[in-house]
Amino acid sequence: MTASPPDAAPDQRWPGERLGLPETGPRSVARLGRRIAALVIDWAIAYLLSWAFFPTPDGTAPFVTLGIFAALQFLFLLIVNGSVGHLLLRMRLVPLRGGYLGAWRPLVRTVLLCLVIPAAIWDRDQRGLHDKAAGTVLVRV
Q1: Element (H, E) at 93
Q2: Phi-psi region for residue 99, left (φ > 0), alpha (ψ -120 to 50) or beta?
Q3: Cα separation of 50 and 72, whole Å?
Q4: Total domain count, the chain
Q5: Is residue 130 in a domain?
Q6: What's the rounded Cα separation, in Å, for the pair 52 and 98?
Q7: What is the rounded distance in angstroms from the CA atom of residue 134 to the CA atom of residue 129?
Q8: Average pLDDT for residues 127-132, to the nearest whole number?
Q9: pLDDT of residue 98
Q10: Is residue 104 assigned to a domain?
Q11: Residue 135 falls within a domain, yes or no?
């Protein structure tokens, strides 16, 4: 019989269990499909705004679209704890330790989200590196 070391983490049955979050329903970790759909909605809004207000002969300027996307992410996270896509798909960004989200968490999360790689790497709780760095978790409402 082998014993696990005392500091070994117990088997996790669902994402967010070790964070004290429920398996399903409100306050459970938002799953990947919902998160990707929200990202597509947010990018589409940024693209349409870029196309409408900053047209180029080729359609839109990619960095203008990225700037609009970042501004929308930051402002909506700061004001209502979720982007337009998050709100439409019934998700909210909350600090892991509770309390107020503040201004620095949305800023750090947005910058890292725009770099793409940190958002594409996540842990067993389905938190991307951008959420880990900001100390946040995206939960269902």
Answers
A1: strand 91-95
A2: left
A3: 12
A4: 1
A5: yes
A6: 39
A7: 8
A8: 96
A9: 87
A10: yes
A11: yes
- Least Cα distance to 79 among 63, 100, 49 occurs for 100
Q: Which domain holds residue 52?
A: 44-140
Residue 102 lies in a domain: yes
Residue 8 has a pLDDT of 47
Which amino acid type is present at position 7?
D
The values of phi and psi at residue 37, to 5°, are -60, -40
For the four alpha carbons of 95, 89, 111 and 118, in that order, the dihedral sign comes to positive
Angle at 12 between CA 6 and CA 13, to 5 degrees: 145
CA 50 to chain CA centroid, nearest Å: 22
CA distance 43 to 113: 12
Q: Is 10 a residue whose pLDDT tops 80?
A: no
Token pair recorded at residue 118: 């940190």
